[in-house]
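[Automated response] Your request has been received and processed.

Submitted sequence:
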Amino acid sequence: MKQWCATALVLTLGLIAIAGCSRGPADTFGEREAVPILAAKVVQKTVYDTIRAIGRVEAYSTVDVKAQVNGQVMQVHFRQGQDVKHGDLLFTIDPRPFEAALQQAQANLAKDRAQYRQAAADEQRYSILLKQNVGSRQQYDQVEATAAAMSASMQADEAAVQTARLNLEYCAIRAPIDGRTGDLLVHAGNLVKPDADTAMVVINQVHPVYVDFAIPEQKLPAVREFMAEHRLAVQVSLPEQQGPLESGELSFVDNTVDSKTGTINLKGQFSNADSRLWPGEFVNTTLILREHPGAILVPSQAVQTGQQGSFVFVVQPEMKVAIRPVVIGESSDNQTVVTSGLKPGETVVTDGQLRLIPGARVSIKGGLSESGAAS
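Generated structure:
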């Protein structure tokens, strides 16, 4: 038993001696295995002070098309959902009753004109006789009153003709604005009446359109400040879309803050030339207050915080990292503005910082991000 223990002790000491002989000088940072990281280039571009909100598209104007006379719809001249221009014929109401009414009014006018001419001639003759002391004053007053009454009747007939002609024109219902028609609620053969509760069709003007959105009342002073300097741009995008869908201008700021929600309503106006914005649609809205050209940007995940403030790990040409103190500004869309400490084109670490110390050798996984975000 003692012999076995002595043999084990000798073997153990031998292994320790071998291990000691094989150990070399202490590794330096440059000789250690490279730490895998993600990295991105520092970029320089224009950034904006913005306010973001959820907006809703509104038609520039909406018209409920209704009949102005009683009658039967004879023909519909458009398809529901069709774009129409101002003045396009939409509906035809049976014009025959109104044509007859116009003819009757014109006949009454012609009759009263003839009677007025006779009364006017009588008045002129009795006026001459009265001056010659041949006729009586009473006779002259009578014919003068008759002429005046016939003149008034003739004016009433002229108004009746204009009304009948207008009613006849109302039989042809035309588009009051450029826009897109909605659901067709009246068809050929239906009877209509003036100012019915239900419109025959609704037309929305969609070139241009408004986007209505609300911002917190705390943002209002900044909006008013920059509105006094220049027209504010508004951009909209769809929830699932990257980048702006359409750009427009702020056109309206409500005159009252909603005391219930603490917000104020704003509207942006958009040309919507391609009809990409649809009334009632919800969109992401970005109000641009001002721009900062030439700002230095890094991905937000590259910025670290230490006892001395913010810093980043900068990858040097020899693929070693160094700590760089930085002064940061605002952050948006996972990007942070660096006001001091970095230059465009430098490479910063965006992931793997926990394994790094100054001078550590690194290897970049997957290449550098082109957009300034970690790949």
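Summary generated for your ticket: DSSP finds four helices and 20 strands in the chain. The longest helix spans residues 96-131.
If you did not submit this request, please reply to this message.
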